[in-house]
Specification:
Structural class: mainly alpha
Largest sheet: none
Number of strands: 0
Shape: rod-shaped
Radius of gyration: 18 Å
Distance between the termini: 70 Å
Order of helices and strands: HH
Helix content: 55-70%
Number of helices: 2
């Protein structure tokens, strides 16, 4: 009997074998999230599989959100620095 958390449906792992969004890039997390949503919308999964997919989707959404928040912070910092540079001239 399989005792780990992988349901065998791919919901608990990313394409590169990482689990729970660890070390996923934005594009990889986004693409996997799209696939999770597609599978949920298609139906035909058991309740347990659907719950595992949902949980994976939540994890992937958090990864994407962290990447986007980081990008926004970098942009804000660059814009602030640019504004300070212009103000000195």
């Amino acid at each position: 009997m399989n005792t780990d958390t992988d349901t065998g449906d791919g919901a608990g792992e990313a394409g590169n074998g990482t689990k729970k969004g660890e070390a996923l890039g934005y594009e990889q997390a986004r693409d996997e999230l799209i696939e999770v949503v597609r599978r949920l919308e298609a139906g035909g999964t058991t309740l347990e599989q659907s719950l595992a997919l949902w949980e994976r989707g939540e994890e992937l959404a958090k990864v994407c959100r962290r990447w986007l928040e980081g990008a926004r912070a970098r942009l804000d910092a660059a814009l602030a620095e640019e504004g300070e540079t212009e103000g000195e001239e």
